[in-house]
Amino acid sequence: MQEQAKDKVKKQFGKNAQKYVESVSHATSHDLDTLIEWVEPKSSSVVLDVATGGGHVVKKLAPLVQTVFVTDLTKEMLANTKNHLNDFNNLIYMIADAESLPFLDQSFDLVTCRIAPHHFPHPSKFIEEVARVLKPKGKFLLIDNVVPDDSELATFMNTFEKLRDDSHVRCLALEEWFELLKVNNVCVERFQVDKKEYDFPVWVERTTENQEQINKVNDYIYQAKQKCKTYYQVKESNGKIMNVSVDQCMIMGEKGE
């Protein structure tokens, strides 16, 4: 089951690599500036970016730190992203599984991972690996979509995400991330949760295979209970979904000594 999930990720991101480089929601979100403010990178910092996708975090961090190890599970994604980061000479590219990182213990001053963990089959293994490769007092910056505590609302979001993108596994709740960090000796220093709005036609087209799949996602959301539509700020026009908003969290933690 785990390998099947990762094969789906490779397939999805391999064929859509350029879309993730160009994605407005991935490339221009305000969280990219906020993460720099939060982690306060140093010129001596050695950084690991996990599941780099389009490399948007790396592009922000590279001018400010000593070295960034740029990793992704998908070779095609990593190769495509490298073409867009060729202005930097302090980047090292490696194919790597977020749940089995190919690095020695206590290797990094900072680990980042943005808009990717909902694709990981075992988030607990991911956090274990992050804690293992972080130096004592090292920082970890996580950004991802999260679900609310309400089980109905959580199921609704994870269902429409899975309908849209078969490589989606599960968005966790904020408290689940807090617990995983706590048991791995990473203390949460600050966090925030914001609404992130998607241009539905663009967002759904990025990962779907055909019009039939697009229609299934549209119909599922369109026919939802008002409770779900209200929470996810669904905007409709003539039977079509135009916008959907989800919760995105940013969490910064520090590894204990």
Automatic annotation (TrEMBL):
GO molecular function: S-adenosylmethionine-dependent methyltransferase activity
Domain Methyltransferase type per the UniProt entry, residue ranges: 48-141
BP term (GO), one: methylation
Keywords: Methyltransferase, Transferase
InterPro entries on file: Diverse_substrate_MTase, Methyltransf_11, SAM-dependent_MTases_sf
CDD domains cross-referenced by the UniProt entry: AdoMet_MTases
The family this protein is said to belong to: Belongs to the methyltransferase superfamily.
Name this protein carries in UniProt: Methyltransferase family protein
Species annotation: Halalkalibacter nanhaiisediminis
